[in-house]
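Homework help thread (please don't just give me the answer)

Our assignment gives two proteins as sequence + structure token strings and asks us to describe the second one. The first is just a warm-up. Here they are:
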Amino acid sequence: MHPVENEPLPQAGHAEVRIVAATPEAARTVAEVIRRCFAGTEQRSYPTPGGGTRLHLTVDTETAAGPARSWLATSRPATGTGPHAEEP
């Protein structure tokens, strides 16, 4: 069985992010970019078979920062709206 299948879902408004990279530096670089967009917990890193790195972090998708704040605001549907008249 794959270990992810047994993991509980994160609480509402949060997402678990897994980064797998050949080097710890590459994984940390990607995590840094994600943390610039979303509030998150401390990252946890683990070695992978073959010498790579797996990095885990939990992000708060309701507390966006920087570029993600404007993207999230425009990507969420407005409340009380339905399909456009020309849509089926």
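The one we have to describe:
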Amino acid sequence: MASVFSMIINGDIPGRFVWKDGEAVAFLTIEPVTPGHVLVVPRNEVDHWEQMDSTLFAHLSGVAQKVGQAVKDAFDAPRIGLLIAGLEVPHVHIHVFQGLSLETFDLANANKNASPEDLDAAAEKIRASLRSLGYGEYVAD
């Protein structure tokens, strides 16, 4: 059975995409630890990040860095956090979020009731920032 992330990538479940390219996508999580919390995910299902092809891992890291720059710009964040937990969904995903404190690195502190309007607004802020940073060709509309 396909992972929930594959279902989002394939359009079977809606997602708030901010980035799309041939190998990776980035979309907002529905349970953010901070506003603008994004997941960077390979299009192909890979369960364990340490077993991933190093070229794909480098690409995902590069996308995470660009998305992180956009989140930092969009929310005037002092720092950007990056986390690979690998426990929630058996499909590699890199969490990119405002690193406001060590508590923001604890996914147990996620907002399980984020409003769709807030998530939509955060996605649009990140898309606008990605465009202004010169990554418009990858911005998902």
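TA reply:
I won't write it for you, but here's a hint about the kind of observation we're looking for: DSSP finds three helices and five strands in the chain.
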